[in-house]
Amino acid sequence: MVADGAKARLFESLGPRERWELIHEWDDAAARTPARELGGAPPVRGRNIASGGRYAVDVKSEHDKAETSFIHECTKFLNSALVDKSFDQLVLAAPPGALGEFRKRLSSDIISNFIGVFDKDLTNMPDQELFEYFKERLVRW
Q1: The pTM is what?
Q2: What is the pLDDT of residues 75-126, one digit of tens each?
Q3: Comparing C-alpha atoms, which of 88, 85, 96, 90 is closest to residue 121?
Q4: Best label site of 13, 84, 105, 107, fewest CB within 10 Å?
Q5: Distances (CA, A) of 125 to 17, 72, 129
Q6: Which residue in 139, 134, 87 sits closest to 113, CA to CA?
């Protein structure tokens, strides 16, 4: 699976030299929309009464909520696919922030089936280049 917070592609292969087949693709327009266009309230600001110091409460933006929801949808699919025994090994490539969300939401059984984890955004790479990229970097297949 190659994913970020708004787009993901899931490929299937029967071995390291076998051709890849795209079996599922996700795309979420809301998660891809810049935060400034989604709106939302500015952070709550205030002043501490005792010390007089200022503070701001950081609230998740609509963009962050959309990305989290998107990743939840992808992980729900993967978790059910594991139960259905649709795969026995998984490679996941995602940028660091999205990768952390994936790890939080994936079952421990899926995490134990990882044969490769890459903290890179490879979602814009063509399929054939992805195949070559992973073929060179996967130690265990």
Answers
A1: 0.77
A2: 999 999 988 988 888 999 999 999 999 999 999 998 988 888 999 999 999 9
A3: 96
A4: 84
A5: 19, 23, 6
A6: 87
Tokens of 127: 């399929």
Q: Cβ(16)–Cβ(138) under 8 Å?
A: yes
Instruction: List domains and CATH numbers for the chain.
Output: 2-31+41-137 (3.30.420)
Distance CA 51, CA 106 (A): 43
Find, among 20, 42, 17, the residue nearest to 130 by Cα. 20
